[in-house]
Amino acid sequence: MIKKIYLIGNPNVGKSVVFSRLTGVQVISSNYPGTTVEIAKGYLRLDNEKVQVVDLPGTYSLDPTSRAEEVAVSLLKEFSKEEIAVINIIDSTNLERNLLLTLQLIEEGFPVVVCMNMCDDAVHRGVHIDIAKLQELLKAPVISTCALTGVGIKLLTERIKEAKSCPKGKLDHQQRWLEIGKIIELVQRLEHRHHTFREIMEDASVRPVTGLLMAAGIIYTAFKFVRFIGEGIINRITDPVFINIYQPLLEKLSIYWQEKGFWFHLLIGDLINGKIDFKQSLGVLTTAPYIEFGMVLPYVVSFYFILSLLEDIGYLPRLAVLLDNLLHRLGLHGYAVIPVLLGFGCNVPGILSTRVLESKRERFIASTIISIGVPCIPLQAMIFGLLGKFGGLYIGGVYLVLFSLVIILGIILNRILPGYSPEFLLEIPPYRFPPLLMLWKKLYFRIKGFLVEALPVVLLGVCFINILLYYKLFDFVTAIFAPIVHGLFGLPKEAVVALAIGFLRKDVAVGMLMPLGLTANQLFIGATLLAISFPCIASFVVLAKELGLRGLIKSTLIMLGISLIVGALLHFAILR
Amino acid sequence: MKKISLAQIKANEAVKILEILGGSNLESKLLSMGVYKGKSVTKLSHIGLRGPVVIKAGRSILALGHSVAEKIIIQRE
Chain A: nearest CA to B13, how far in angstroms? Predict the structure, then answer.
């Protein structure tokens, strides 16, 4: 009787895609090792019985060398071997490396079904595998699948029952590799082919000169595309909808509102020159939806579209190789680019994915750097929206300040924290071109995630702020912090409210700066401060979870200190 | 005979691994990724002066930090 099914395999062999196919639970998958940092669970119907399926983080062997691998191995031993089935997922294009884990699983007596995934890609690359022969040699069922298109998944579920425990004498790794050599000889045939264009591009991306040129080109194009698509959506879709359809509707509604009391203030906000102004009115029905749908959502869509594309193709690990040198100086190694890039979308998944880094020290440096120097896309969208009209110089300025901060802070942390930077060891996946449908699914999944998380906070947040403003409850806080904000940062004292709201959500906070009538320089300081000061509440919770209380306090003190210093420096440098 | 490491040779050289220094943790990690004593690998590139080294071992492409590459002693074929 099978009680639990585990999916195990090397990193980046498509475990999460198989998991989604088996259970119907949508999880994020990407073309780089270590996408799965949280263990996903789902259910599969097996002979009219619901059986739990667990997607384990990727591991190269059963002797764990990193935290993710430890988790995978310890979960596997939770139940007795008679009660579980293990689906060992293998990348067919790289059978040799994958077989080490397979042999270990069989030796240990786990009931194994081998799933030869990515079989279509193997054929493309001229790798032919004799499945029947492999099955005979391993004495375990072997099924060839292509999880992206769903080929072979049905057969896989049918054959899970056939998994049997047949422990063998244990070998050491050296003996296993010999054994694998023999198996490969018997089952694998490689077609000799000339280098394809894809292989030439794979090569070029990890060579110094061509690699850096490609990286510069790709980053520049990606940035341009994010802005182009984002602005396109705003100008062609969201702005026309808000201004031509939604605004007249709200104005009709507000005519019937004779008394402009509490509810009017709460829902519509202030009228600017007798009219609703989506950027300045600050009502739950006016500015709140405009910030989320009219300013932020278009960029969330465009950013995640480009990021997902780069992820699925498999470009990011190549970027990690090129940036390893620079990141070493910050006490990290190349692989830290992945949490950082995810952080540009939202700091929460960025900080969560620092789990791919080995040491506590690295995770602390990476998380602190992300929460200080990496603005999330909602914040960036608002910065584009607000500073854009003053020219690219101001936007560029914000990024320049943040980038310098990351470098300086990284170098300092690397110097003062005890320990050393660990060694960089990363497998570079081949380029893959998943079907567009997968890309859309992932994009839909991420946008839905964004809306579910952001929308309630934004609506309730604006509601809450308006109540406090209506009853003038902010005046007390403003009075306390006014000397710092006004004297040190050169911002009007009303900006205190905006900076405080930054703790709730960064996009709303920048939105609160809109009606204050700030100069370009003041906006620049305000936006930069919002980027580096306190993380929003969601990232705060994740920071606490990942770093522990002491780490959180350390990280927070660093943030506060830096905000004060940078705010004051910028104030005296450009306002005076 | 002087020991030569993966960090010291030029790109595009095919070599055989003689020894992996630097402790059993690194050795077993590399071993589980298919890089072990006696294995033939090809160095693909070397990024910058003290940057990572990219090698091809079997059908996988691996990036090794400079300090890792220095610990892999090789023999030219």
Answer: 14
d(CA A460, CA A246): 20
The answer to whether residue A509 sits within a structural domain is: yes
Residue A127 has a pLDDT of: 92
Residues of chain A with pLDDT below 50 are none
Q: Are residues A83 and A51 in the same domain?
A: yes
| B23 in contact with chain A, both atoms CB, cutoff 8 A | no
| Cross-chain Cβ contact B34/A96 below 8 Å | yes
CA A74, A78, A83: angle at the middle one, nearest 5?
A: 135
Residues sharing a CB contact under 8 Å with residue A309, sequence separation 6 or more, in sequence order = A439
pLDDT at A574: 85
Q: How many CB pairs under 8 A join A and B?
A: 107
Q: Can you give the residue range of the structural domain that contains A519?
A: 210-575
Number of folded domains in chain A? 2
Same domain, residue pair A138 and A219: no
Q: Three-state SS for A367?
A: helix
- Residue-level pLDDT at A116: 96
Domain of B53: which CATH number?
Answer: 2.30.30.90
Q: Which positions ≥6 away from A537 have C-beta within 8 Å?
A: A457, A503, A504, A505
Mutation site, A93, A127, A426, A432, interface B, largest B CB count within 10 A: A426
* Separation of alpha carbons A129 and A134, rounded Å: 8
Contact B48/A97, CB-based, under 8 Å?
no
- Comparing CA positions, the residue from A567, A568, A481 lying closest to residue A532 is A567
Are the beta carbons of B61 and A202 separated by less than 8 Å? Answer: yes
Q: How far is CA A538 from the centre of its chain?
A: 14
Q: Which of B6, B12, B30, B33 to mutate to test the interface with A (most CBs of A within 10 A)?
A: B33
Number of domains in chain B: 1
- Pair (A178, A219) in one structural domain: no
The reply to whether A170 and A315 lie within a common domain is no
Question: Residue A529 has what pLDDT?
Answer: 93
Neighbouring C-beta atoms of residue A417, cutoff 10 Å: 15
Chain B residues in contact with A203 by the CB 8 A cut-off are 44
Enclosing domain of residue B15: 4-76
